[in-house]
Amino acid sequence: MKKTRQKTMKTETNARQLMRDDHSTLWHPFTQMQEWISEPPLIIKKGKGVYLWDIEGKKYLDGNSSIWVNLHGHQKKEITMAIEHQLKAIAHSTFLGLSNIPAIQLAKKLIEIAPKGLSRVFYSDNGSTAVEIALKMAYQFWQHQGGAFQKKKKFLTLYNAYHGDTIGTMSVGGISLFQDLFRPLFYPVYKIESPYCYRCPLTLAWPDCQIACLESMEKVLTNHHEEIAAILMEPGIQAAGGMIVLPPGYLKRVKALSRRYGVLLILDEVATGFGRTGKMFASEHEGVSPDLMAVAKGLTGGYLPLAATLATEEIFEAFSGPYDSFKTFFHGHSYTGNQLGCAAAIANLEIFEKEETLKELQSKIGLLKNLLEPFNRLDLVGDVRQTGFIGVVELVKNKKTGESFPLKDKMGIKVCLEARNRGLLIRPLGNILVLIPPLSSSGIQIKKMVTILRESIETISKGIR
Q: How many CB atoms are closer than 10 A to CB 55?
């Protein structure tokens, strides 16, 4: 008994010290640190399957897949073993002037599962960088064409888009809160409204909203295609910009416009890739093959940082030439093609095959849809959206008018804190609640997540009446 008490006291002391050290040394992303240091931080100690445990032993459902990266659960044996096996050989060697076995093997697998026409893989470390690489490739591609094509130096993107936090990817993003402060550093970009049909800026319902947005895109292309290098967009759903589900057929129309006006199409599949929408890549739902595609997040199953930009052979060939032609793509990173990351990614893709993940996912998608439908009747809920295994609930102050809560009310945060107290970890996007479970979640676990989310909304709703 005495030893148990001493062990408990030591654990509590260590926990308090970790909290103090967090507050005194760290700077967390997308976090108002003044508020952060006023409360005890939640510190994760371990994970198993779809669960996480904090340093005090409390158990939580990982309802956002650790920010959308975890696919098959924590401590997935096959991925762990693949990393351990690779460690016995080598952890990392440079990709500049050298190659390595896992990078070659992974590239072959990615090309096999990618949309038709993508035949080259350029590795990097994260989603922002993968998109930035695609932008640079598109720009340089046209410069190599010579003549009038060298005027193609701009991009066409959507409002509400999120493509990363580097200067280049913020330039093509469309979230004012994240990006306005840095606007003087951006390069010029053409932007059009996205088909956010619930909050259509043109006050149009679907399909008129979609038609109007596509007409806006075509108008810009008609007038400026000679200076536009590429259209960049997230297929299927605009993620961090509000989880805006794009209408069926929208992507296919965008692809047609890109071809008609002679501009490249870049798809940002960082958030949507690797099963999140029910197919390996969201672009598959409409049979669209881009010229460039960025992937990251779920690439390693949530184990290690790794990203890739996939390109067509036509784009690759434009960079080919004698040494002194300087057509080289001058871009790279110290950890490009890292062996551990590539080994984890290979194991991740093998699990998809072995466990028939996408096939098994279809019934879970249907279950999630059925469980989310009753949320439409909740007082604080204005819109319920879903694409594949991504569930979205938008909170509103006025259900009839769709009026949003002021961000200072922190309604999304309040619901998420209530959910945390009940054992579910999710993170809001303002007033938008996002549920993205690991693909391996069981039916029982999905029901538990959705039940906690609904009860949390109901509890907060009672508190503001």
A: 18
pTM value surpassing 0.90: yes
DSSP element (H, E) containing 381: strand 381-387
Whole-Å CA distances, 350 to 114, 361, 439: 15, 16, 15
What pLDDT is stored for residue 300 in this prediction? 98
> Mind listing the pLDDT tens digit for each residue in 222-231?
999 999 999 9
For 92-118, letters b (16+ CB in 10 Å) and e give: eeebeeeebebbeebbebbeeebbeeb
CA-nearest of 321, 163, 180 to 230 is 163
Which string of DSSP letters, residue by residue, matches 441-453? --HHHHHHHHHHH
Task: Determine the Cα–Cα distance for residues 72 and 33; give it in Å rounded to an integer.
Answer: 32
- Mean of pLDDT values over 148-164: 97
- The structure tokens listed for 33 are 């640190």
Instruction: Give the length of the chain.
Output: 465
CA–CA separation, 93 and 264 (whole Å): 33
Which tokens hold the place of 304? 């290690």
Q: Where are the alpha helices (DSSP H) in 265-377?
A: 313-317, 339-354, 357-372
Count CB-CB contacts under 10 A for residue 193: 17
Fold of 42-72+357-463: Aspartate Aminotransferase, domain 1 (3.90.1150)
CATH class of 79-354: alpha beta
Structure tokens at 65: 């897949």
* pLDDT at residue 8 greater than cutoff 60: no
pLDDT confidence band for 4 (50 / 70 / 90)? low
| Span(s) in the chain for CATH 3.40.640.10 | 79-354
